[in-house]
């Protein structure tokens, strides 16, 4: 009898705990979205705020997958307490929670120990090895932003679990394709030369796969002063040794690269930490060739602050010609989990490229535009 009462009491308290955690997690019943509302709360299929910051997307087997930094509440959320979160979608508006694709480790000696900085994860698929390859910016736990490395994880399944492979400082002892003799002049600001033997710094990063299957790793290097575009090996796990230094001493970060009508475009931000600043877009005929800055593509309120956001990714929309979505993060460093997503259409008009602000829009934008 006593035992029965005890089990009922335990059962009721478990039920109450489950009920309370569910009400906390499910902020609202899942709704069906039919448009994008940049900067507004965006909930997943369970009614929970999508938690995939600094993200990247991949289209695979007729579905989109969104990978990003899972952030927790408060300032602590600026470091990795959980890992990389994955969501999937058929229509880009409605996202299903696929769980944590890469977990940080409870082992403090791991390179991805809980509390490290793990930013801007991107996933690409390698058709030769049949592996999904994730790259991200890694700062070892307790070292602030001094480590400046890129890391690689792989999985046979798109949603994971991903296994950590290694972290690197790219292109040690390697000259870029646009090397000039003056690059080797010693000075206190020549960070390229300083890091020549140990490999170049790699912070804000992105990946891009070209039509010929070659993949590129784009990252802020040399104390964030110079951007590098570095070709990967055919398995996408390492630098191939072919790379270029661009925007020398221009301090650009948050790179997002895409290709349209045979030309390469690179959107970047200036370097002001979590605070927003003006974006620029640059163009090149050859990804490892000459890059020319065009302008700030943003138009509308706060266009000089990238709409209070920072570039993260440019997504080519499947099945619609000339349809690209600019994706940015509106960071909230005091309460990291509350960072918002800005998804806006890229508009091409001849050679002119703009990103107009819109409170609300849907994919018909691409079909109806002139
Ligand atoms: C931003 C960068 C973010 C994060 C932040 C830290 O400029 O894009 O990914 O590193 O700085 O201050």
Structural features, described:
- It is a single chain.
- The protein is globular.
- The protein has a single domain, classed as Tachylectin-2, Chain A.
- The strands form 6 sheets. It has a 4-stranded antiparallel beta sheet with strand order 1-2-3-4, with no helix packed on it. A 4-stranded antiparallel beta sheet has the order 5-6-7-8, with no helix packed on it.
- 39% of the residues are buried.
- The chain has 370 residues and is mostly beta strands.
- Helix content is 9%, strand content 39%.
- Mean pLDDT is 93; it is low at 9-25.
- Residues 54, 119-120, 204, 253-254, 273-274, 310 line the site of beta-D-galactopyranose (GAL).
Give the class-level CATH name: Mainly Beta
What percent strand?
35-45%
Task: Please give the count of helices.
Answer: 3
**Overall 3D form:** globular
Alpha-carbon distance between the termini? 77 Å
CATH topology annotation: Tachylectin-2, Chain A
Q: Numbering strands along the chain, what is their spatial order in the largest sheet?
A: 1-2-3-4
What is the overall pLDDT average? Answer: 93
Name the CATH architecture: 5 Propeller
How many distinct folded domains? 1
Describe the biggest sheet? 4 strands, antiparallel
Low-confidence stretches: 9-25
Q: Which distinct ligands sit in these coordinates?
A: beta-D-galactopyranose
Helix percent band = under 10%
């Amino acid at each position: 009898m006593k035992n029965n009462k005890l089990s009922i009491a335990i059962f009721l308290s478990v039920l109450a705990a489950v009920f309370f955690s569910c009400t906390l997690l499910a902020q609202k019943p899942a709704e069906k979205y039919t448009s994008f509302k940049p900067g507004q709360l965006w909930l997943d299929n369970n009614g929970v705020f999508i938690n995939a910051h600094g993200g990247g997307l991949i289209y695979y087997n007729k579905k989109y997958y969104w990978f990003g930094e899972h952030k927790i509440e408060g300032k602590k959320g600026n470091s990795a307490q959980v890992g990389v979160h994955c969501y999937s979608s058929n229509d880009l508006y409605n996202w299903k929670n696929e769980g944590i694709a890469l977990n940080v480790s409870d082992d403090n000696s791991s390179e991805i120990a809980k509390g490290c900085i793990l930013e801007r994860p991107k996933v690409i698929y390698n058709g030769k090895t049949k592996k999904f390859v994730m790259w991200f910016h890694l700062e070892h736990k307790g070292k602030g932003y001094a480590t400046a490395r890129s890391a690689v994880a792989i999985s046979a399944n798109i949603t994971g679990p991903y296994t950590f492979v290694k972290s690197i400082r790219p292109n040690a002892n390697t000259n870029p394709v646009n090397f000039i003799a003056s690059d080797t002049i010693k000075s206190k600001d020549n960070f390229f030369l300083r890091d020549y033997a140990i490999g170049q710094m790699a912070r804000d990063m992105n990946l891009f796969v070209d039509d010929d299957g070659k993949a590129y790793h784009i990252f802020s290097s040399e104390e964030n002063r110079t951007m590098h575009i570095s070709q990967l090996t055919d398995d996408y796990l390492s630098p191939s040794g072919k790379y270029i230094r661009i925007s020398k001493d221009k301090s650009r970060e948050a790179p997002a690269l895409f290709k349209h009508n045979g030309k390469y475009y690179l959107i970047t931000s200036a370097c002001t930490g979590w605070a927003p600043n003006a974006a620029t877009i640059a163009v090149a005929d050859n990804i490892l060739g000459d890059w020319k800055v065009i302008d700030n593509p943003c138009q509308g309120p706060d266009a000089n602050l990238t709409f209070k956001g920072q570039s993260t990714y440019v997504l080519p929309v499947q099945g619609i010609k000339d349809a690209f979505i600019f994706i940015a993060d509106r960071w909230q460093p005091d309460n990291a989990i509350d960072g918002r997503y800005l998804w806006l259409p890229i508009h091409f008009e001849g050679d002119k490229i703009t990103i107009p602000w819109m409170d609300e829009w849907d994919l018909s934008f691409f079909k109806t535009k002139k």
